[in-house]
Amino acid sequence: VSLAQLYGIPLCMLIALRGHWGEPYPWHTRGGIVTEGVLRALSIPFEYARDPADVGRQIREAYTFSQSALSPVALLLTRDLMEDA
User: Fold this and answer.
1) 3-state SS class at 44
2) Which of 50, 75, 79, 81 is deepest in the core (most CB within 10 A)?
3) Which residues contact 74 (CB under 8 A, 6 or more apart)?
4) pTM beyond cutoff 0.90
5) Is 85 in contact with 14 (CB distance < 8 Å)?
6) CB 31 within 8 A of CB 61
7) 23 lies in which domain range?
8) Tens digit of each residue's pLDDT (9 = 90 or more) over 16-61
């Protein structure tokens, strides 16, 4: 990500956001705790994808934004989204 930021490389990341309350798998917990903080620390814009009806539009918008901003962006795929899919 740091090279994408440095050289203005568009990067659209789809990140599974796990590890929140009710998470049954301990190996997801640490990643879920730190993901948002890492994105904020790196000044990477992000949005949550929670609704299957909206996720296609959100992916297109994230891709378009990464291309126009020439920078990384992240779409966080929530557990609710993945369980409903």
Assistant:
1) coil
2) 75
3) 13, 14, 15, 39, 44, 45, 46, 47, 62
4) no
5) no
6) no
7) 2-84
8) 988 776 767 767 777 778 899 999 999 999 999 999 999 999 999 9
Hey, what are 71's tokens?
Answer: 């920078």
Domains of the chain: total: 1
Cβ count near 77 (within 10 Å): 20
What are 4-14's pLDDT values in tens digits? 999 999 999 99
85: DSSP letter: -
Q: How many CB atoms lie within 10 A of CB 81?
A: 19
Structure tokens at 4: 């994408």
Is 41 in a helix, a strand, or coil?
helix
Amino acid at 35: T
**What is d(CA 33, CA 38) in angstroms, rounded to the nearest whole number?**
10
